[in-house]
Amino acid sequence: MLRAASEPYSHLVGEIALERGEGIAWAAAEQKEPAFTQELLSDPRTKFVPELEEEKFQSLLSVPIIARDGGVIGVISLHTETPREFTPAEVEVLTSSASLVAGAIENAHLYEETRKRVGELEQLTALAETLTRAQRLDELLPTVSGQCRELLHASACHLYLLDSGSEELRLRASAPNGSEARKAIKLQSLGRELTRRERSATIALPLVADEELLGLLRAEDTDEIEVARGAANQIALALKKIELIERLTEKNLIKDFFEQLAGGSAGGDLDGRAARLGCDIDQRYLVVAATPPDDALEKQLAAAAPGSLFDRRDDSIRGLLRVPAGGPDALVEKLGQIDPADHAGLAIGVSNVCQGGASFTAGFEEAKNALLGASVIRSAPGVMTYEELGPYKYLLRLPFDAAMRDAHRDAVMRIAEYDRQRNTALVRTLEEFLRRRGNISSTAEALYVHPNTLRQRLRRIQELSGLDLRKDDWLLVEIAVKMVKLQDALGGRSDLT
Predict the structure, then answer these.
(1) Is the pTM of this model over 0.70?
(2) In a domain, 272, yes or no
(3) For 136-288, where are the alpha helices, taking DSSP H only?
(4) ∠ at Cα 220 (214, 225), nearest 5°?
(5) Which of 245, 264, 290 is the last residue of a domain?
(6) Residue 119 included in any domain
(7) What are the pLDDT digits (tens) for 44-91?
(8) Is 53 left (phi over 0), alpha (psi -120 to 50) or beta?
(9) Taking Cα atoms as reference points, which of 127, 186, 130 lies closest to residue 160?
(10) What is the DSSP letter of 224?
């Protein structure tokens, strides 16, 4: 490319180019030594350039400009209008001049590169400050797309974010505003999108944090790939930070919303909080309480009822599950499909249908009691609705006085203490025996023991407790068993509710 010329050809700078192998200048560059001719127009190496009026010239000398590392930077060419043979001294002067020019060009390149890098560092610092200050996506994305465009010297810059619902990357910001870009990119075409950048002078980099794909940075008409990688890493970290902030904010909103519903406070900003969370409390919901409180169970509950709200507590998960068109029974059936084998100690308590702000106080209480029932009444983990508690729903609401003396409860507590010390299952044996109405064979089958083993356990129960299952009221004994299990489930607290 012509970069400098004497008058009257200086106006052609940047306009004249010789492809590789064209002209005597390329011969000098490839051979790394001076090349000349006294018959410019007839020399086969000549590339005729009409703009340079080469028909006026007879002789031409080209001297390569060689860098310190031996590479060729360019060529200096001289023309004469009359045939001339350049002397060795003239060639030496021009060669020495080319060496000086090479040093000056390398220094200029180094200066320009340094200035460019300093500018990039300043812009990266400004980008980092923007990313650090940002608290919301709507204030972050437009600013970042503009800064990235300047940083990468691109004609346009676009930011896409992953839409988890549709598994697509959706356009969220562009610089300049209104610049043409695809509105969505499917994940299955993302590989092709990334491989096209070399052919189209476009950089497309995924935004990844903690090995999670968050979005895509796309910059057009630029080759600043390394700078773009640095920017993409910073943007991904900022997106993750904002995602965490929004998640914590939403969790706090949900927690306050749940506390307001459970406490029976229908005034204040209840409707406003419900609207912000996308919850219409005038629709039908089931309140659930579930254990264990982990991500896996919360995801499965959410899959059973899309659009649900959940509040993670230390000991359980509370949730509002929207009743589908199929009704509450269909939703409970879906909950029952959650495999207990995937969750140690799985238990899910489900309320009656709630509709309207005033109904949720009872709903949260019902779900809590049903969760207790699933742990205490059922011998195996799973789902229990409030209605399935039967008469135990009243027992769960009674205040529990630890100081109150009751012979049957004291007897069962002695058995429970023996179980804790010896790691036995006598309370469960007694409970199953009462549930099976004293049938030895069915009780042994339910406990997976031999009938003789069951008889031995029953004799041990009577020895420890003083109970006589032939004479004592089985209903009183069964209530005592449930009371002891409830007390144990509540950690020994004196208030069952």
Answers:
(1) no
(2) no
(3) 137-152, 190-195, 197-200, 225-262, 270-276
(4) 70
(5) 245
(6) no
(7) 787 878 787 777 787 888 899 988 888 888 999 888 887 888 888 888
(8) left
(9) 186
(10) -
